[in-house]
Amino acid sequence: MKKENELRNKKRYIIIGNSASGVSCIEGIRENDKEGEILVFSDEDYFNYSRPLISYYLAGKLKEDQLNFKDEKFYEKNNVKLFLKTRCEKIDLKDKILFTTYGKFNFDYIFIGTGGKPIIPDIKGIEKIKNGLFTFTKLNDAKKLERYIEDKKVKEVVILGGGLIGLKCAEGLISKNIFVKIVELSDRIFANTFDNIASEIVENKLKENNCEIIKGNTIEKVNTKDGDLKEVILKDGKKIKANVLVIAIGVVPNTEIIEGINIKKNKGIIVDEYMKTNIPFIYAGGDVAESIEFDGNISVIAIWPRATKQGKIAGINMSGGSKKYEGIFIMNSIEFFGIPTISFGITNPKDEKRCEILKKIDYEKKIYKKIVINENKIVGGIFLGDIERAGILNGLIKNRIDVSSFKNLLLDEKFGLLILPETYRKHIVKGEGIEV
């Protein structure tokens, strides 16, 4: 009885979701509260894994145990009770109770880190597909796709979507000698952050590696036979025989857990700079959260670094701290078929006349560098093939440094921290610091 009473005096933190934001929330809580009870709920089967790596699992380059970013000892060390294969169904705000498929639990604070769920477009006949339709955002998605391809001896796959998810899925499939057709509505792949030149370089690399890209088009209808996918029909009427279709057009915040309760949401769950919702004991972060970002806009940005940062800050504040989230700008660092790429900030300004754009291209070496400058400050950039100094430019954006006195050196091969004027070097070193 004494032990039970002691436990009741401790705070109980519940974390819904066991990916980047949820795991970081654990670390944030333990910075201030070493004794509080932490319960983590996940509807998946795994301790944790890095979702950006599932394409390498599909390709056979990484084994399942190589995907973990924290091992089992992490939960033991932090005294965390982890509930896997457990769905969270409802939150009772009045009595502070979480209802799950495992049972119900009282809480003092909840962190919602449920991430995003795949967007499934309105395609005629899609509801009739029982075999051959996949998404690609979770490890189980990759496992199901891999099993189906092997069992059915699939040789060709159609992917709807030429963004990050679609391209990484394509890379994994191509590594298994599968011929891939990517259908993309935009006029180029990775349209959100690449420009025409960057997209062209990656497109050419894809074409060299057993991939066809159909741009300016989409899938309007599918045909099936006895539940098996047989054919996709494009907007322009073109018919493509297909036994496998992967939907990869993006994700939306998974806000199902707050349906019917008084937690404010727009596209995602709305949080303040402390990651708190309109309910003082409910916090959220990662792909499910909508927050004020570096550019001053309120938005949802589904990238790993944002999720880890927001989860950590939420954990700190739930456990008595007072740390503010200062926002990030959109940044993607990814490799496609041996071409490392980084894109960040505003890469395709709406009004190019108001910006100065610096470019350097080497098609033969597949190297491309682009820097966007507005009012003498870097606001965005694209680096393909050679990303060695991209971190310095990233720091210049974060610190809002005036680059007018050295902008002619930004794309120089010898450009580095030591080339910057001394006053700027001192500012950067004394500030948060940057990656060199």
Short description:
By secondary structure, the chain is α/β, with parallel strands linked by helices.
Can you walk me through this structure?
There is one protein chain. Strand 24 (356-362) and strand 25 (367-374) form a beta hairpin. Helix 2 runs parallel beside helix 8. A five-stranded parallel beta sheet has the order 3-2-1-7-19. It has a five-stranded parallel beta sheet with strand order 9-16-10-11-12. The protein is α/β, with parallel strands linked by helices and 436 residues long. The model is unreliable at 1-6 and 430-436 (pLDDT under 50). It has helices at 2-9, 20-32, 54-59, 72-77, 139-152, 164-174, 196-208, 304-318, 390-398, 422-430; strands at residues 12-16, 37-41, 80-83, 88-92, 97-100, 104-106, 109-112, 116-118, 133-135, 156-160, 179-184, 211-215, 219-225, 228-234, 239-241, 245-247, 251-253, 269-270, 282-284, 289-292, 298-299, 331-336, 339-345, 356-362, 367-374, 377-384. It has three domains: 2-58 and 69-115 and 261-318, FAD/NAD(P)-binding domain; 126-250, FAD/NAD(P)-binding domain; 338-430, 2-Layer Sandwich (Enolase-like, domain 1), CATH 3.30.390.30. 24% of the residues lie in helices and 28% in strands.
Using the coordinates above, name the CATH class of the largest domain: Alpha Beta
Poorly predicted spans:
1-6, 430-436
Coarse morphology: globular
Main pleated sheet: 5 strands, parallel
Structural class: alpha/beta
CATH names the topology of the largest domain as: FAD/NAD(P)-binding domain
Strand tally? 26
